Automatic annotation (TrEMBL):
<keyword id="KW-0479">Metal-binding</keyword>
<dbReference type="GO" id="GO:0046872">
    <property type="term" value="F:metal ion binding"/>
</dbReference>
<dbReference type="InterPro" id="IPR029044">
    <property type="entry name" value="Nucleotide-diphossugar_trans"/>
</dbReference>
<dbReference type="InterPro" id="IPR002495">
    <property type="entry name" value="Glyco_trans_8"/>
</dbReference>
<keyword id="KW-0328">Glycosyltransferase</keyword>
<keyword id="KW-0808">Transferase</keyword>
<dbReference type="InterPro" id="IPR050748">
    <property type="entry name" value="Glycosyltrans_8_dom-fam"/>
</dbReference>
<dbReference type="GO" id="GO:0016757">
    <property type="term" value="F:glycosyltransferase activity"/>
</dbReference>
<protein>
    <recommendedName>
        <fullName>Glycosyl transferase</fullName>
    </recommendedName>
</protein>
<dbReference type="Pfam" id="PF01501">
    <property type="entry name" value="Glyco_transf_8"/>
</dbReference>
Length: 259
């Protein structure tokens, strides 16, 4: 059975997505099926992307999220329709699909994903990592008594998500919480953060901008190279931008697909 990989992008993120998939292709022996949820990517670009993915020995399905899927959920400049793609993936993806691994396109794989894919989620809808940087600040801001999880890597039990998540709760939460700067990540933590199976950020969602903090905490570059599976280049600038001067830039360049 393949690893069912979920991505949600617009046209501008196609090159970083190719780099992510190229890095997975270089490090993963298991079959990969890529699910793309999008709003309105040009059909020609979708065909080009599909050909590129299948040329890298992966299979591909694109799902266009039609507005009717989102019911009365607020869609504004602050909360564009893409806000809901991960939270509502259970409603958008086929009911025959039971689990997906969501990965942000600003992530690089440097090891196989099968251990994460096969994780026992203990009946919970999500598995995610909590970054230590700004952890206390985010917990206080959100007024939560559990870890604040980063949703750049998110293992999703679609059956549980279909049972648990509804528009009414999301809409009510947005209405009563005016300041949600991290949008769907804040919504997930606020509504469902106490139902997340924790995974190790050092392995599965390594916060690249906090590289120095990891070293201060006892990790070594050798350990990171040997054990970390997913490097998350969150925040700006991104490693595909010329001005990037952050950590692990060479790692990204080795897998980078620019066109």
């Amino acid at each position: 059975m393949p690893i069912e990989l979920l991505v949600t992008i617009n046209e501008t993120y196609i090159p970083p997505l190719k780099t992510l998939l190229n890095s997975i292709h270089q490090t993963e022996s298991q079959p990969i099926h890529v699910w793309l949820i999008h709003r309105q990517i040009d059909p020609t670009q979708l065909k080009t992307l599909s050909d590129w993915i299948t040329g890298h020995n992966m299979t591909f399905t694109a799902c266009q999220a039609i507005p009717a899927v989102f019911g009365n959920a607020p869609i504004t400049a602050q909360y564009p329709v893409e806000t809901y793609f991960r939270l509502l993936s259970g409603q958008i993806l086929p009911k025959t699909l039971h689990r997906v691994l969501y990965i942000d396109p600003d992530i690089l794989a440097q090891g196989p994903l099968d251990e994460l894919w096969q994780l026992d989620m203990q009946g919970r809808p999500f598995a995610a990592a909590a970054h230590q940087d700004q952890q206390l600040e985010n917990r206080q801001r959100m007024q939560i008594n559990h870890a604040y999880y980063n949703t750049g890597v998110l293992l999703i039990d679609l059956d549980r998500v279909r049972q648990l998540i509804n528009f009414r709760d999301i809409t009510a939460y947005i209405t009563t919480h005016e300041d949600l700067p991290l949008v769907d990540q804040d919504i997930l933590n606020g509504l469902y953060g106490n139902q997340v199976t924790p995974i190790d950020d050092k392995i599965w969602n390594f916060d690249v901008p906090s590289y120095a903090n990891y070293l201060e905490g006892g990790l070594t570059p050798e350990w990171i190279a040997a054990h970390t599976r997913l490097l998350h280049y969150q925040r700006q600038p991104k490693p595909w931008q010329p001005e990037y001067a952050g950590p692990l830039g060479k790692n990204y360049q080795q897998a980078q697909i620019s066109e």
